[in-house]
Design goal:
alpha/beta; globular; single chain; 8 helices; Uracil-DNA_glycosylase-like; UdgX family uracil-DNA binding protein; UDG_Type-4/5; Ura-DNA_glyco_family4; DNA repair
Length: 209
């Protein structure tokens, strides 16, 4: 499928695709309508040659306000999981499939709204550029939106999570988004599954570059 550059981040990509140039250019992205209501672009963060790239759905309320990925409650779940899985945070680059916060307002609260397929597609050039710049050995795909972006619309996290699958020069391991742990009726069980998937990713890293 050919991407319409008028409804895509592609026309905002800089000539140089190093992370610094990408981050600066992404700050002015208007590739979809999400930029109109979001506070700011929330680009990925981490070392330029990270062993792991972790891809979530989109920034949440706190991420949108602070301008950094995974700084809210889900970020605390993620940090705990990485620590217990033995994944060094200094070897991790974290980002999202969509770089602007999608939400609806309910009173004074901003309620997360799942990005549309068009918004996911529009933001894909940033994610592709991050992957090319970082060149991770393992990509941890967290949640259905990230899975749709990176592994295709037929991929089902519920059925295929925790199984390393080839993705370009890397291996991908899908899992639930850490925010799903917070929403789960049985948080302990949800977290145990999330941690098990991260441990698969940690083990997989030994078989890549």
């Amino acid at each position: 499928m050919t991407t319409n550059v008028n409804n895509s981040a592609a026309r905002f990509l800089p000539e140089s695709h190093d992370l610094g140039s990408l981050r600066s250019a992404a700050a002015g992205c208007e590739g979809c309508d999400l930029f109109r209501n979001a506070t700011q672009t929330v680009f990925g963060e981490g070392p330029g040659r990270a062993r792991y790239m972790l891809v979530g759905e989109q920034p949440g309320d706190q991420e949108d306000r602070q301008g950094h990925p995974f700084v809210g409650p889900a970020g605390r779940i993620l940090d705990r999981g990485l620590d217990e899985a033995g994944i060094d945070r200094d070897e991790v680059y974290v980002t999202n499939a969509v770089k602007h916060f999608s939400f609806t307002e309910r009173g004074k609260r901003r309620i997360h709204q799942k990005p549309t397929a068009a918004e996911i597609e529009a933001c894909r050039p940033w994610l592709d550029a991050e992957l090319a710049a970082v060149r991770p050995g393992v990509v941890v795909v967290m949640g259905a939106t990230a899975a749709r972006s990176l592994l295709g619309r037929t991929f089902r996290v519920t059925r295929q999570r925790g199984e390393p699958v080839p993705m370009g020069d890397a291996l991908a391991v899908a899992t639930i988004h850490p925010s799903a742990v917070l929403r789960a009726p049985d948080r302990d069980a949800a977290y145990a599954g999330f941690l098990a998937d991260l441990r698969v990713a940690a083990g997989t890293a030994g078989h890549t570059r």
